[in-house]
Design goal:
about 220 residues, alpha+beta, 6 helices
Length: about 220
């Protein structure tokens, strides 16, 4: 089901992020690690079994939780959102290739800071140079290169911005829904050529939404 990127969605996403900020268990001190209480199993009301794949509010709550976990590098919480069987696939650009894009299990996400392996994530747009770096470096350079908790445009099951790269998120994940956190422009001087976005793809389960894909998008040649 498609839903347009409208001001109401922006308001709802902002409200959800604000609510997360008020959770008593969430610590944001400079010397403490934040703990986000939201988990996939709590994306619906406590004590109910009424979760529905059409529940956009629950989808946005999960997206907000993932964004917060990425922002604060809380990989234990991030791992709790990752699908226990499918894992999460990382795509450096808009075009998803499930055969070659790197996939990590929840257990791998939990200890990613200890992982010094330089993985091949793809090839740089324009230059064609291999993108080889640790997962920590990749998350900083591609996935959360800007603070997406403050994204100025949000699309639900809709791509906000696109360029020359093939946008195939719905073909790659036909059984899923996604939230597109986008900055249509970071600096007015670049007239929109510096746009970037992060698509979070979620698969529905009986207990809620689980993260299966993170897709970085930007202007490409």
């Amino acid at each position: 089901m498609r839903r347009a990127a409208v001001p109401l969605v922006l308001f709802l996403f902002g409200f959800i992020l604000g609510a997360l900020c008020l959770v008593p268990m969430l610590s944001r001190g400079p010397d403490t690690s934040p703990v986000v209480s939201l988990t996939p199993g709590s994306s619906q009301e406590e004590g109910t079994n009424s979760f529905s794949p059409k529940d956009t509010t629950a989808l946005l709550r999960s997206a907000a939780g993932v964004a917060e976990a990425l922002k604060w590098k809380d990989y234990e919480t991030l791992a709790n959102f990752v699908h226990p069987e499918r894992g999460v696939t990382f795509s450096p650009y808009s075009t998803v290739d499930l055969e070659t894009d790197q996939n990590f299990t929840p257990d791998q996400i939990r200890v990613l800071e200890e992982d010094g392996t330089r993985y091949l994530w793809g090839y740089e747009d324009g230059r064609g140079e291999p993108i080889q770096m640790t997962i920590v470096h990749f998350l900083e350079e591609f996935i959360f290169s800007v603070d997406y908790t403050q994204a100025t445009a949000v699309g639900v099951d809709q791509v906000v911005m696109s360029g020359n790269s093939l946008e195939n998120v719905q073909d790659a994940y036909p059984d899923c829904r996604f939230v597109d956190l986008c900055y249509p422009s970071l600096d007015p001087a670049y007239e929109g050529l510096d746009w970037c976005s992060l698509k979070m793809v979620f698969a529905p389960t009986q207990s809620g939404w689980y993260l299966v894909g993170l897709i970085h998008s930007q202007w490409t040649i």
